[in-house]
Specification:
The protein is mainly α. It contains 31 helices and 4 strands.
Length: 716
């Protein structure tokens, strides 16, 4: 169960509990939609013990909650684990007559619930201890049928006493031989055949059918899913020096066999005997390999053994088994459930070992040709996240392109999944290169092709789903790419691949200051890589190191143009200008710039188009800019005996700062103001803009390094 589902269920329970304390007319709104949402979430995810405990209290305690809502809650009490003794006792205590008892209809629902969960009780003996209480409630006709059913389930020989037999006989005569009572009498007769019932039980006994088979099946699904999740979570905290012993219902049918050793000798040790790291280390040379070595896919201890004692035959046997199972899937001799279970186990193995068995890649190359993208493809994407560093073009044509054709369905979700896959592949390839010596000759070509392809995918995403989540996903990919530029070794071997121009300017004019800042941070990092390459003397020795000949002049000018455009927008008040060397004018067509310039002048002659994208007027930076001035004014007020007579109304301009000083406001130069804005952004983890401007304009870098933080002063 996800943490978000747990939080949502808890919040809904609190809402229902609060509403239950108030009469319906006193509530702010109708509680029934909230109850319906709670019931739906309980059905989908099940209930943790704490939530189940709170809902039982809500149902059995007197309140203003209507009967329909209580019934809906009881019908969806799906416990994800065993039900505690306390809950069973509280439900039993709620049965019978009394002003504080729930209505008889609710009692019937609770009895049905006890019948359906009696096999998952934490302490089954609680029913035996409460047998007398339950038996004495048989006089209540409304709950008698379900009460007889529950008693029939829990009755044992010790419960069958003469006085109870007599009580049942008397009650059955009073109720015209109620079939449910006679059904309970037949259970008694099974323990004491000498009971003479005669014609009383002939053809009149109830068969006590299960109240709701579909409810029982759903309960099993919920509990198995929770048990599987708990098992996976527990594996993350185990020391990994014990054999993985699958637990829980249905785990015996697992496709991949568990570790089992049957050919041990007196001098050997089986993996099943290892209990801790000490036992593993002391006996590593004597440990006997298990019968089926494919268990290495699911057992961390066997994985460690084969890592420390490599055995080519063992891995070949595991590969042969995998190949056989997967071939059966392709040939149609195995159902889809087998495929996803095998891939789920392979995923766990790949995540642990950080490598994909070659047989899996071969299977994917064939499988993707006929796959329609249905099923649990999350496991496939996680497996492919650890794709080996090979030629990207071959990898794409053989595996990734068929995968894209199968998964991509023109929805943003599928495109984001593929983008996330490429980010994970780039992360894995970076890790491989950081541990490689020497760096493979094909590494630069493969990574450059991957980044280029992902850039095109990012552009498609920005057109189909221009949302902030998509922006973040694309930015995260390029932030992963800059690890190659920052790495002290890899920066000499991996060429910088710039994002597409359209993508850069889309992010530059993003509605999110975080996206804009992160883009500037990426471009600032690239500048260091270009400078390093330009300063490295070109060599003709066949080396694959990056040097002055790695980038042609047009490519470097393209990058410099991005920097010039950003400086023109934020610092020089020349937005969209293409007059400077290498500037692109933000790719804005000149007729469009002329039209926008005329429009701005027609609205207000005090403004110009280039000024509207400066730090003071930019739609995403204007608030941060005036906020930095407010902070300076607050600091000045706090450190001065006299109050500032005038605060800046904003937006800030060079002229407005001059007038502010005369009017009794803070003394702040235009240069100090802009530097203060950049510093303020950096303090809020938005330092990408300042980093780019500093790295691009030497004058600004010197000013920021030399100028202490601005201190607002009172004008005298």
């Amino acid at each position: 169960m996800s943490s978000s589902a747990v939080k949502e269920i808890d919040a809904l329970i609190r809402d229902v509990a609060a509403a239950a304390k108030l009469p319906a007319k006193s509530r702010m709104g109708d509680i029934r939609p909230t109850v319906a949402s709670l019931a739906s979430l309980a059905y989908e995810n099940g209930l943790l013990p704490e939530a189940l405990d709170e809902l039982i209290d809500l149902v059995v305690t007197p309140s203003h909650l209507d009967q329909a809502s209580r019934n809906a809650i009881v019908r969806n009490l799906y416990p994800v684990s065993r039900v505690s003794r306390d809950i069973a006792i509280r439900v039993i205590g709620a049965l019978g007559h009394g002003a504080l008892k729930p209505s008889l209809n609710i009692q019937v629902a609770l009895l049905k619930w006890l019948i359906m969960i009696h096999h998952v009780l934490e302490t089954p003996a609680v029913f035996a201890q409460a047998y007398s209480v339950l038996f004495n409630l048989l006089n209540t006709a409304a709950i008698r049928p379900n009460l007889c059913h529950l008693l029939a389930l829990i009755t044992r020989r010790k419960h069958v006493r003469p006085f109870r037999i007599q009580a049942l006989l008397n009650l059955s005569r009073q109720t015209a031989n109620d079939p449910y009572l006679i059904g309970l009498l037949r259970v008694y007769k099974d323990y004491y055949p000498e009971i003479i019932l005669g014609e009383l039980v002939r053809g009149r006994a109830s068969a006590f059918k299960h109240p709701d088979i579909s409810w029982k099946e759903r309960l099993q699904e919920v509990q198995e899913a929770y048990a599987l999740q708990a098992e996976r979570n527990s594996q993350a905290v185990l020391d990994g020096f014990r054999v993985n012993r699958p637990t829980g219902r249905g785990r015996g049918n697992r496709v991949v066999p568990a570790v089992h050793t049957s050919h041990a000798t007196e001098n050997s040790v089986t993996l099943e005997e290892v209990e801790n790291i000490t036992g593993f280390v002391q006996n590593i040379d004597r440990i006997e390999l298990p019968n089926q070595l494919v268990a290495v896919l699911a057992d961390p201890l066997l994985q460690k053994l084969l890592l420390l004692r490599p055995n080519a035959e063992a891995y070949q046997r595991a590969a042969n088994w995998l190949n056989s199972v997967l071939q059966n899937v392709i040939d149609g001799d195995a159902d889809e459930a087998v495929l996803w279970e095998v891939l789920d186990v392979v995923k766990e193995f790949v995540v642990q070992c950080k490598s994909i068995p070659p047989v899996i890649l071969g299977f994917f190359a064939t499988f993707f040709q006929q796959w329609n993208g249905s099923g649990q493809h999350g496991s496939i994407l996680q497996i492919l996240s650890f794709t080996p560093l090979v030629g990207f073009q071959e990898l794409y044509e053989r595996i990734l392109q068929p995968l894209e054709l199968a998964i991509l369905d023109n929805t943003p979700g599928s495109q984001e999944e593929i983008l996330s896959l490429y980010t994970n592949i780039l992360r894995h390839w970076t890790a491989i290169l950081q541990s490689s010596d020497p760096v493979p000759a094909h590494a630069n070509t493969s990574i450059t092709a991957l980044i280029r392809h992902t850039g095109r995918l990012g552009l498609t995403l920005l057109q189909t789903s221009p949302t902030e989540s998509v922006n973040i996903a694309i930015i995260e990919f390029y932030e992963q790419a800059i690890h190659l530029v920052n790495d002290d070794s890899l920066k000499y071997y991996i060429r910088i691949e710039l994002p597409p121009s359209e993508l850069i300017y889309t992010f530059l004019f993003s509605s999110s200051v975080a996206t804009m800042s992160r883009l500037c941070g990426i471009l600032a990092c690239y500048k260091k890589g270009f400078e390093m390459a330009m300063s490295t003397k070109a060599r003709n020795d066949g080396s694959n190191r990056i040097d002055a000949l790695s980038y042609d002049r047009a490519y470097v000018n393209l990058y410099n143009g991005y920097l010039m455009d950003i400086c023109n927008c934020f610092w020089r008040s020349r937005a969209f200008s293409d007059a400077d060397t290498n500037s692109h004018g933000c790719l804005m067509p000149r007729p469009t710039v002329a039209d926008l310039t005329a429009y701005v002048s027609s609205v207000d002659k005090a403004f110009s188009l280039p000024s509207l994208l400066t730090l003071s007027y930019s739609p995403v930076l204007c608030f941060q800019s005036i906020r930095s001035v407010r902070d300076l004014e607050d600091a000045a007020i706090g450190s001065s005996d006299s109050a500032i007579r005038t605060r800046h109304a904003g937006p800030v301009t060079q002229n407005s700062l001059s007038k502010l000083t005369v009017a009794g406001g803070i003394q702040l130069s235009w240069q100090d103001y802009r530097i203060e804005v950049l510093r303020s952004l950096a303090e809020k983890s938005l330092g990408g803009i300042a980093e780019l401007l500093k790295n691009t304009m030497t004058v600004l870098k010197n000013s920021m390094d030399a100028t202490p933080r601005a201190r607002a002063k009172m004008s005298i």
